[in-house]
Amino acid sequence: MFRYIARRLLIMPVLLIGVTVLIFLMLSMLTPYERASLYVSDIPKRQGALEGIIEKYGLDDPIPVQYWHWMVGRKDEATGEIKGGVLRGDLGWSKVGKSSVSEVIGRRLPATAELALWSAIPLIGLSVWMGVIAAVNHNKLTDQILRVFAITGWSIPTFVFGLLVLMLFYARLGWFPPDRLSEWAQRIVTSGDFTRYTQLHTVDAVLNLRFDIFVDALRHLVLPVLTLSVVSWAFMLRVTRSSMLDVLRQDYMTTARAKGLAERTVIRRHAVPNALIPVITVGGLTLIGLFNGVVITETVFNFPGMGKFLADAALTLDVVSVLGVTLFSSFILVFGNLVVDVLYGVVDPRIRLE
Amino acid sequence: MKVLKRLLKNPTSLTGIVLLIAFVVIAIAAPQLAPPPENSRDAFMIPRDGFSTEPRSPSDEHMMGTTEGQYDIYYGVIWGTRTAFRIGVVITLFTTVIGLLIGAISGFYGGWVDELLMRITEIFQAFPFLLAAITLTSVLQTVYGRGDANIMVYMARLLSMVTFFQSPTAAMDPIPMQILTGMLAIIVFGWMTYARVIRGNILSITEFDYALAARTIGAGPMRILFRHLFPNAVFPVLVIASMNIGSYVLTFAALSFLGLGAQRGYADWGQMISFARNWVPSLAEHWYIVVYPGMAIVLFVLAWNLVGDALRDILDPRLTGSRA
User: Fold this and answer.
1) CA contacts within 13 A on the Cβ side of B204
2) How far apart are CA B113 and CA B102, in angstroms?
3) Nearest by CB to A292, which of B128, B143, B257?
4) How far apart are CA A283 and CA A291, in angstroms?
5) Spacing of C-alpha B184 from chain mean position
6) pLDDT in tens, B195-210
7) What residues in B contact A148, CB-CB < 8 Å?
8) What ipTM is given for this predicted complex?
9) Residue B320: pLDDT above 50?
């Protein structure tokens, strides 16, 4: 167990460094001028100012030297101030966000987190439950219906699904609007009377005892949450189903039945816990799905999160912002995968012995 | 042959095959189904009927209506089939070759080569796929915007030869150029599943007796690799490829939807749907700007997924002939 976790922990820095190297390789395809916004917010129009900046921040240095400065920052000779440096949390200047990239990410993250949290919870419960039902009724009608549901859900592009639900529930019925809050609610939330403890509107509304705002925030969340979860939902259902089918074929299932246990108990106590092991391992993949989905979902619903920021930045080719968000997301993903791996080792003793 | 028979017997995979054949027919017959206007320079550019922004409902003249800017939706859906096949097949081709090479080298040589290649694979997998594709596309488009000659331009030339049958000496056409950047980005971040599966497969097969037997009679490593190991890896690769074509097309459509893939007015489903972003409050009346191209994507991806899913079930011996 210890060795297993130790190995995972040792690989992690390799992965993190690899990710930064890859990102920097992409950055190095840009001209020094385009890279300048890694260090400065705007380049003065004066003659020669650009050359000065390129020289000052060494944007013409050999790539490995530049990589080092990009990682740890670069000291400004005149003021003694350190600029840039991914390790210091400085990802450069965002032209689209008109502030530093890390600041924009910090500002946009709560919206994305709220969306992801609301998506993840129903997603896990429902998909596992549906997967078990499908496997227990293997090749019967229920199984076929759930299979078609899963494979269709897997085939619908997020943006098509999002636009279709908007068409029905917003344009036609007017139940669930896009954006994150209605205008009146937005005014209250940004006013001084409303304390923003967590920046998650639904949680803050409850803490402030403003249930009208809670309902409003929820109305804006229903469609994006549905859109974001549908793909991963289908995926998890399929994984649970096939893993459950595998378990149902094992000899210990026969043993359990031979002991005279009721079928219900056999499924609940012996099959489901074992079937859940592979489901945990795809947790990382689901996380990827959420990251990918967030970009599209937030764009469709005009939801002011990190994904929308990435899409806006990419459209105007604000590469420094795009790379910043991608780097940040990959770091989260690497840590998420570590958690998944450790969990896997904890629940499955066979892995530890490897 | 046995595989084909079983594919045709299963109702879900049969649906998939029928859908695929239908798409192939549409792609081949595109010039007959939706003849391009006489004076058109590029058949893939959707003809426009006027320049007003407001989409127009389906009519006798425009079977599926027109979208913003009066692009004919029917024409776009038909010619978009060709675009989807091109993109899906070419990306799959390149990713499979890259994955096969890396996976085979890794599994065959083992040791530090394996360790190194697998760590690199893991690093590429550490990125959320769509985010990585968006990032690389925006970098490539910045580079191309300047018209710099570098290695990427040569890769794009190779890609345009395969994708657009463009002569390598001809100047790069700016219209396919934008599509190529998206494809290149998807290829760079799309080969990892193949590499891992091939590696795993080769590792497990080298344990088998026939690989040992081949070695004892003095077969060289290349002979073992090509005569004994690759043929065994073909089916798993086929399954992944058929499931991945759908996801590549989806990812490219997502890039187009965000405005990074195909150019405005190009016959590409994702690009056509991106117009709908400006019409969200009135989508109830302008439903056709989402529903027709959206249906095309869903059915296309569904077809590949159905076939891939059935192939996996058939080729996975653990799933056959069991009681449960």
Assistant:
1) 7
2) 10
3) B128
4) 13
5) 11
6) 988 888 877 777 676 6
7) 12
8) 0.86
9) no
